[in-house]
């Protein structure tokens, strides 16, 4: 479990999302493969929003290289605005959530079932990311609706 702030200043606690499929994508602005994966994550996030299904998608920023939390947040905000992404971004300013999830490289995407258990993990970027996440989410929701 964790509690992190979004770029908008909202607080998100993972355990409060139980009952939904939760997708967490660990990324950083300086990470080339992350930058390639984020548009696919946005596509999946749009599907999740429009489907009406209990699927929550979060880009989880970690390992930024700026010296202060304020500079990290400002850099991510500028990147997010420039790229016109709309999915929520969680800020793991000290990298503690990445450490707890044993993230050793990014991008790394976790799919957490409605029961709160990690069910899938994806390492790196694949062109089929949005489709894969949609299939996995629908499979985890079978019998839950």
Written description of the protein model:
This protein has 145 residues and is α/β, with parallel strands linked by helices. Helix content is 37%, strand content 26%. The two termini are 24 Å apart.
Give a concise summary.
The chain has 145 residues and is an alpha/beta fold. The chain has helices at residues 32-51, 69-83, 96-100, 129-141, and strands at residues 3-6, 11-13, 21-27, 55-62, 89-92, 108-112, 118-123. The protein has a seven-stranded mixed sheet.
Brief descriptors of the model:
145 residues, 7-stranded mixed beta sheet, 7 strands
CA-based shape:
globular
- Strands ordered across the widest β-sheet: 2-1-5-4-3-6-7
Helix/sheet category: alpha/beta
**What profile does the largest beta sheet have?**
7 strands, mixed
What share of the residues lie within helices?
25-40%
Q: Please trace the helix and strand order, writing H or E for each element.
A: EEEHEHEHEEH
Poorly predicted sequence stretches spanning 5 or more consecutive residues: none
- Could you give the count of β-strands? 7
Q: Termini, distance in Å?
A: 24 Å
Using only CA atoms, what is the Rg? 14 Å
Mean pLDDT: 96
Percent of sequence in beta strands: 25-35%
Q: Number of helix segments?
A: 4
What topology does this entry show?
Elements: E1 3-6, E2 11-13, E3 21-27, H1 32-51, E4 55-62, H2 69-83, E5 89-92, H3 96-100, E6 108-112, E7 118-123, H4 129-141
Parallel strand pairs: 3-4, 4-5
Antiparallel strand pairs: 1-2, 1-5, 3-6, 6-7
Helix pairs in contact: 1-4
């Amino acid at each position: 479990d964790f509690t992190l702030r979004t770029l908008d200043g909202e607080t998100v606690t993972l355990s409060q999302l139980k009952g939904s499929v939760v997708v967490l994508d660990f990324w950083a602005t300086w990470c080339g493969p992350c930058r390639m994966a984020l548009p696919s994550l946005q596509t999946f996030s749009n599907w999740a929003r429009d489907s009406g299904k209990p699927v929550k998608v979060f880009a989880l920023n970690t390992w930024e290289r700026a010296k202060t939390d304020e500079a990290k947040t400002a850099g991510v905000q500028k990147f997010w605005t420039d790229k016109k992404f709309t999915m929520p971004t969680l800020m793991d300013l000290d990298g503690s959530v990445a450490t707890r999830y044993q993230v050793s490289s990014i991008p790394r995407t976790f799919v957490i079932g409605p029961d709160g258990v990690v069910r899938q993990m994806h390492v790196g970027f694949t062109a089929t990311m949005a489709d894969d996440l949609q299939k996995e989410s629908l499979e985890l929701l079978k019998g839950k609706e």
